[in-house]
Model the fold of this input.
Amino acid sequence: MSTSDPSESSSSLASSAVGGGGEGLRVAVLYNLKENAPSLNGSAPKDALAELDSMTNVEDYCAAIRALGHSVVAFEGNAELPQRLAEHPVDLCFNTCEGFRGDSREAQVPALLEMMGVPYTASRVMALAITLDKAMTKRVLHYYGLPTPAFQEFFAADQPLDPRLRARLAAGATLFVKPNREGTGIGIHSDARLRDEASLRAKVAYLLGAYNESVLVEEYIEGRDVTCGLVGNLRLDGTPDEDLHLFPISEVDYSVYPAGTEPFYSYKLKVDLADSYRNLCPAPLPEAVAAEVRRLTVETFRACGCRDVARVDFRLDVNNNLQPMILEINALPGITSISDLTLCAEAEGWTHAQLVQAVFQAAVRRLRQRGRLTVRSRLLPAAQSA
Ligand SMILES: Nc1ncnc2c1ncn2[C@@H]1O[C@H](COP(=O)(O)OP(=O)(O)OP(=O)(O)O)[C@@H](O)[C@H]1O
Ligand SMILES: [Mg+2]
Done:
């Protein structure tokens, strides 16, 4: 496993360009474009499609993979995908599909690919379904004893409030409310932090109606926002493979926003004020805290069964010695030219193309190690253990 060393990362990218076999692979980049999303009903919130991609980003992914010597096509990850892949067989799909709808929307394209026996980059069906669901992820983290804020999942606004959360409110603490299965700050606005049960229930009722999914209520963790990304894999025995690379930890710099801006990384900060965004990378942290963030990043990746790439978001609890509290793992993190993970990679001298290539190569290496990537891999049974 490596941590941030620019010289080491650049040379490892160059030396493993085509994944060992020497031949160029036939690759399909799979995407979900905002412009192809099924039209939302008129009352849908304006942030609902924020995770979807643009053609410019797709062209970036294609160019980066082509530069490694592979032939690349690009397809929308929709119901026509099986037909497209039958007409244009490929050896490997580079998956960036966030999915348009459904409670496991990120897992849908991988499920189709599993059915067709086509290998693909990044996490597999189960990990994508679990990690899209923040409450389910937190249950997994609990099982492994990994630190995450106390929580309750709401399916109706009048559910009894969990006694632990009720006790927090009674003690003067605040709670945080967000949709259970979104990213990019979708549904996280300045009123996400609440101090009393009545306003909490009103907010839960609004989110249940607006996003048509369960709502997550958590204890509010006061502290700095940090994120830690990685590319590469664990071995089948759970130990880090030599290609596992952790990027420097990044911290949201709130000092750039006007006084009165919400002290959390909301949709407004992520999207509307994206041009003002500044991060501190590497984050100026005591080494023991940074080491714990890195350890918990790998542990979360392991616990959730992720593959090839991920980014784990934390808050450092000021009321508990900067204990890193895991908010979520992004198993299909944004890798556009301005995504958080890209900024982390750039902070140690990588280019955006190198990041895309590293994700691709992590998958190639993993699949080859497990005997799941051959030029005729589409004729093999589904990749059961890759
Ligand atoms: N329990 C909490 N306590 C304090 N702040 C929180 C809590 N949960 C979320 N936040 C704030 O909201 C931000 C976004 O939360 P989270 O990472 O869960 O949302 P997201 O929309 O899935 O993010 P991403 O863009 O990474 O997909 C966090 O970075 C943090 O600032
Ligand atoms: Mg997040």
